[in-house]
Amino acid sequence: MLQSPPAEPGMREDEIDTPALVIDLDAFEHNLDTMAALLAPTGTKLRAHAKTHKSPVVAKLQMARGAIGQCVQKVGEAEILAWGGVPDIMVTNQVVGARKLARLAALAKIAQVSICVDDPAQIAALAEAAEAAGVRIPVLVEIDVGGKRCGVEAGPPAVALAELIAASKHLSFGGIQAYHGSAQHIRAPEARMAAVAGAIEAARRTVEQLRQRGLGCPVVGGGGSGTFLNEAGSGVYTEIQAGSYAFMDADYARNTEAPPFQHALFVLATVMSAATPVISVVDAGHKAMPTDSGYPTVFGRPGVSYVGASDEHGKLTVEDPSLRPRLGEKLRLIPGHCDPTVDRYDWYVGVRKGRVECLWPVAARGAMA
Predict the structure, then answer these.
(1) Tens digit of pLDDT for each residue in 99-125?
(2) Domains observed in the chain
(3) Residue 205 Cα distances to 86, 145, 209, 344, angstroms
């Protein structure tokens, strides 16, 4: 069921119904501008990851600042973006199943849509779907660069898949996907850089072996909000796939030398109980935001900590009773993990200088297939 909008333009921030997903528009725009400025001298392009924001509105704001397109993880996300007018979309994931592949191929008639594979059977199924739809689909080979999740081994196994793609009448070889997801949250910068160095070398080696077999590699994609400067400066990667940079979350802030972006995404919550001198309870618990990456932090309130969650309650404690949030007070909470937090809401409430400026639908919310 679609959630009712929790606010309307012109309303004060403290009038927003809670829990609500709030974007600080000044911080958000700062983040978009900062990423564009940092990537410009490297020549590496941004293909921002829409699994974070799930919104054609946000996608178009990123593209207005130079992003060449968007990444998604699911066909449903690709559909929402394509229908919303985003012209270039990469599915940075494997898609299995005839119905999903038929949907993907249909999208290729209204947008440039590419996809990743790591198995010959995926290539055969994609070619069949592309032939049935009368389209030609660019396909990237995903290589495992250290994440130990999806991806074929770098080097000869990846080259073998690329040759299968290039031989297909209905597919074209689009490049390699070399994303090291688990490196994004390695806390120490030295260890994080070492992990990314391994990914860069695996990608470099694969590109060279593709060249030796007569295959160009138009795209080398990867990089995230925690490591993008390393990949962008490598001379190997052509596209950066950062997503969280637009919003930032509490877990990224825990990295030593955290990314150079501001917190822009918040869950606005109301203090619903303040019955003891050192405890307050807000109306935002597990249903309002996930805790897979730790509890949220309380924005702008030193000495106030979010220490526990149940379904509908969030427990706050204070170091000094004088700091305790008062009954009815609205607080901004920085979620531990922005992507699944966004997926709990139907609306973004855009706020600037204490006033609601806009509401944007989270159009791809729940697009899991």
Answers:
(1) 999 999 999 999 999 999 999 999 999
(2) 13-21+261-361 (2.40.37.20), 25-247 (3.20.20.10)
(3) 33, 11, 6, 41
